[in-house]
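Encode chain A's predicted structure.
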Amino acid sequence: MNYYIASCVFSERHAALSERIIHYISERHHLPIVRCCTRRYKVKEFEDKMVEPVKDIWASLPDSAQWNEGDIAYSICHNCCNIAEESQRGVSAMSIWELVLADKDFQYPDYSGMDVVIQDCWRSKERHVEQLAVRELLHKMKIQYNELPENFGKTRFCGNSLYRPQPTRNPKLAPKYYKDGAQGLFQPHSLEEQAAIMKDYCQRFNDKAVVCYCHYCLEGLEMGGAKAFHIAQLLFPQG
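Encoded structure for chain A:
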């Protein structure tokens, strides 16, 4: 069985965009859609946070899947991909970008003349197929892109999320990513310190637009004053 994980945090922060994506997944791919990679994870808390137009849709979704060996978890959230793959035996995780790229009838918006920098994400630094898919999607939208020196597996960026404590479940469920692979990260910093770190980081862009594919990366880029876009915003524009 293949599933799409809609992501609690992404859907809370980008309700209208999440609604459009959920509709696309349902109409084009006919995948069962669940909220999260983990059963019973902050169910009431996120239900209370959801706003229209995704609020009613969210209430109708199962909190998670009954994972079985051989299942594929597609998600827009790197946390969900990492946790599903590592905590559920025999489950494979793939990004939504690979799913879109496989859709031969997808109607790509035309952004001819747009020139951006790609920001790769530390949480997906080992997911080379996803990283290549993101670049191919930009190409299909006629967006020119530039690479950072710390790209692909060399990136150490995930916005300001790496400068605050992570949820306690993450290193328990996915120790490869969030314990063994996170030495020195997720150290507590004040909001003022996080903002200063992000502002300093974003100076490298020199006011050039940045495209990321992680909601935590987007949060940090916006905190640092960058002109930032999540690739989902470009692929699924409003109206």
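The radius of gyration is 17 Å.
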